[in-house]
Structure formats: structure tokens, C-alpha cells
Amino acid sequence: MPCAAPPVAFGLIGGIFGLLILGQGWGYAFPYSLLSLGMRANNPQMTIALVPFLLACAAYTVVFTGLAIRLMQRDVTAE
Which helix or strand (DSSP H or E) is residue 48 part of? Predict the structure, then answer.
């Protein structure tokens, strides 16, 4: 049975690091900070620039989906 601790640890570290990045003003530069940025976790009165936010979400989705497909194709061998 695989251990579930590493993904949980990566998520926790990524979430904390994402808040630190968001606090520095670089919220679009790190995928884990987009959730806090979208929910306006630091400042509920903050306005979000919608176009850069959606572009960053789309870019991260395309990049990580492409990487996942590439890794899965490497694992599958056709006979």
C-alpha cells in the first residue's frame, strides 16, 4: 500500500510557500498562491485583475496537464 504522507506534505508546504509568495506581491508566479489570490485571503476588499489571473490559471493548467500526459505516455507501453 503506498504511503499518503508525501503528497500531503507537498501540499502543505506548497500552501504555506504560496501564502508567503502572495504576501510578497508575486501571486501569479506560483500555482499554490492562485487559490489564496482568487479567494482574496489576505484582503477581502482587494480587487483582482481578472485577465492575468485567468491567464495564469490557464497556463498552469496547460503546463501541468502536458507534463502529466507526457509522464503517463512514458509509463504505458504498447505491445
Answer: none
Dihedral of the CA atoms 22, 26, 32, 34 (nearest 10)? 90
Reference 19, options 1, 34, 4; nearest CA is 34
Entry pTM: 0.73
Report phi then psi at 77, rounded to 5. Answer: -115, 130
CB atoms within 10 A of CB 10: 11
Enumerate residues 6+ apart whose C-beta is below 8 A from 42.
19, 22, 23, 36
**pLDDT of 45-54, one tens digit each?**
878 888 999 9
The residues, any chain, with a CB within 8 Å of residue 36's CB and separated by 6 or more, are 18, 19, 22, 27, 42
CA-based angle 22:28:33, to the nearest 5? 45
